[in-house]
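Dear colleague,

Thank you for sharing your sequence with our group. We've completed the structure prediction you requested, and as agreed, I am returning the results in plain text so they can be pasted directly into your records. Please verify that the sequence below matches your submission; if there's any discrepancy, let me know and we will rerun it promptly.
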Amino acid sequence: MATGKNPLFDTATTLGKIFLFLGVSAICGVLVAGLLVPAAAVSGSAASGSIQFFDTLPAELKVDPPSQSTTVLASDGSVIATLYAENRTRVSLDQMSPYIKDAVIAIEDSRFYEHGGVDTTGILRALVSTARGNKQGASTITQQYVNNVINSSLEAEGKGDQVLLNGVNKGVGDKLREMKLAIALEKKFTKEQILEGYLNIVFFNRDAYGIEAAAKFFFSTSAKDLTLPQAALLAGVVNSPSFYDPTIHPDNAKVRRDLVLHAMLSQGKIKQADYDAAVATPVTTKVTQPRQGCAYATTAPYFCDYVLHLLLNNPAYGADTAERERKIFRGGLTIKTTLDPKAQAVAQAQVDASAGANPDKWGAALVSVQPGSGKIVSMAQNTVWFPADGKFDQTQNFNVDSQDAKGQDLNGLGGFQPGSTMKPFTFAEWLNEGKSMSTQLNGAVRRYPQNFPWRNTCPAPTVGWYDSTNGTKDLQNAEDGYYRYMSVLDGLANSINTMTFASASQVDLCGIQKIVDAVGIHGGLPTADDPNPKVPMTTLGNLIGSTQTAPLTMASAFATFANDGKYCEPIAIASVTDQSGAQLPAQATNCRDAIKPEVARGVAYAMQEVLNRGSGSLIQPRISTRTSFPVAAKTGTNDTNGSTWVVGYTTGLATATWFGDPLGNQGRPGQNLTINGKFYKGIDGYMIAGPQFSNYMAQVAPAYGTNPFPAPPSSMLGTTVVPRPTVPSAPASAPAPAPTTQGSSPAAAPAAAASPAPSTAAAP
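Please find the predicted C-alpha cells below.
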C-alpha cells in the first residue's frame, strides 16, 4: 500500500534525506547501471557503506499466492458459504477492467513501464517535495507489491505484529531491502505479472483485499465490469483506505478520485470527454457486505459447520489447529460437498413447519443419506445461528455427534434417546439366527428377573431386570390388549415392548450387539477418553433405546437395510482443491458388509408393515398411501415423550427425523405442550417427526431411486397364518392420551428403574 503522505526515510533533517538519496542512487547504480543515478556521481563513505550494506541484502522473494477465500459448495456447484481470513478472490489481468489498470498506474506509478523496479526520478521528486514540507511517497508499484507480499507472508505465519508500513515502522534497512527485492522481482516477472499480483493483493478495506473483492464490496460488481469513475475511485482508495473510504468519507473519496482522473487525462489514458463525464459523476456505492463463515451460509449452516469441523480435525490439513485454520481460511480452497440443495430446501421447510418458532425451544431435526455411498444429502434443524426475534437460536448441530472418533470437537449436540427405532436390530438378529418372522411368541411375559437365563456370548455381562417383586417395574406396553401371543412380525410392526423382549430372550444378545456395532451405531455423549462409545445391547434398556444416539448415526444405520446389508460410513466432503487446482484429501465412500443380504431384506419387509398397518400407519399424511413407491420405517418415542423419531428408507434414500427436547439434560417431558398452536397431551413419534418424514420423502425420495425392495426368502416369512390385530384407532388430529408409560398406538414402556436395572426408555 502506498501512503503518499509519509517521508521516504525516517531521518531527522532535510540534509540527511538528500545524502541518503545520493547513497541509494549509488547502490542502485551499481546493480542496474543506466536505469538509476550512476555510482560515479556519488562520493563519500556514506555511499560506500550503503553499497556494502545493500550487497548483503537478500535478492530472492518467495511470492506465494496471497491469502484467498475458501468456498464451500453444494453438490451442484452452488455456493453454501465463504470462509476467509482476508476476503480476496484472485482474478487474472484480463478479468480486470482496463480502467483499473490505467488508473492505478496513473496515480501510483506513472513510470511503471519505464523503470526497473525502483524509480530514481520519483525518489528525487519525493525528496525535493518532502524537503519543501510537502510529504510525498516514492514507492513504485513493484515496491508496493514486494511490501504486500512480505506482509502477507507474515500474516499467514501468524506474525501480524511484524507487518511493515511506510512511515510507521519501516526503517532505512527495510526500505533498502524492499528496493533490492523490487529490482530482483523485475528480472523474474513481466510487468503484467507484477501488476496482476499487485492488484490481487493490495488492501482496499478490512472486508476487501484485491480488486475483485473491492469491486464486489463497494459496487456489487466484478473487477471486469468496473466503470471509469468506479475504477478511478478504487485506485484512489489504495493510498489511504480509511481516509478515502467512500462509504465513510465520500467527499474525501471524490477529491482523490478526481485527482486520479486528472492524472489519467494528463497521461493520455482517457480523453477530455471521458474525464468531464467521470468528474461529473457523483460518488455512489452499492455495498455488498461479505458474509464470512458457516453462520452466514446461504443454506445449511449446520451442515457447513460440520464440514468445517471435519477439515479442522484432519491432520492432512496441518499438524495443529492453527496450521489447519491457515490452510482453510487463507488457502483459497474449493470444498465440494455432498449436499443436495433441492433436498436441503425441502428438509429445512419441514423442520421449520414442525417447530420453526416456539418459545419453549423444542427442537426438530432431519438428516438423510444415500445408501451405497454414505453421502449426506440434507441436514436441517429448526434453529437459527444468531439470536432473532421469535426464533430458536442455537449453534450446536442436532444431527451429529459432539466429537469425532478421535475425540475432536464436531460441535454436535451428541444425540437423543432413540426409543423403539432400536427394535429392528433385535428383529434382525432373530432373522440372522434363521428364525421365521411368523413365529408366535408370548407377548404377555412382563417379568425378566435377575436370574433370567439370557443367552449372551459377549464378555460384557447382561445388565438389568424387570420384576415388580424385586424392586423394579414389570415390563410394560403403551396400551393394554397386546399382552398376548402374536407373531414376531406383528410385534415389530406394532412396536410391542414385550415382543421385543420375547424375541431377545431366544437369541444371543451378543448377536444383537454385533449387528448394532456393524451398522455404525454408537451412542452416549462422547468424551476424549471414549469418543466413540458403543451402545451396549447387553444392557436390557438399550433393546428399546435408552442410550443417546445422533440422527446421522441412525440414518446411516438404517441405510444398511436399504443397501442389502452393506453399511457405508456417512461422508460430507466430495472433493477439495487448492488454488492451483491440486486435489487435497477429501472423503471417499467406505462400505463394509454388516448384515446378511437376506436379513436386510427381511427387515425391509417388516418395516414396510410398520407403515402399512402398524405404529407408523398413524402418520398423517400417510407415506404408504400417498406415494407409489415402497417405503420402510420405524417410529420411536422415549419414555418421557421428550424424544420422538421416525427413521426409514427407500432403496435410494435413508432419512432420520426427530422432534423433542434439545436442552440441557433433555429431561423435559413431551407432555401437555402446544406446538404451532396445537395442543399435545403427549408427543409420539408419528405426530410431528412422522409428517416431517412423510412430506420430505414424498418430495425427495423419487430423485434417488424408489425401486421395490428385494423379497426375503420365503422360509424367513414362514407359512403360518399371521394374525394381524387392528391398530387401536385414534383420529389423526386428536392428541394421544397422556401416557403413564409412554407413546401412542401399540407402544412401549419404561424399563425398570432400579440398580442395576436398565435406564428407562421405550416407544412406538
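Summary note from our side: Confidence is low (pLDDT under 50) at residues 1-13, 27-47, 720-764.

Kind regards,
the structure core
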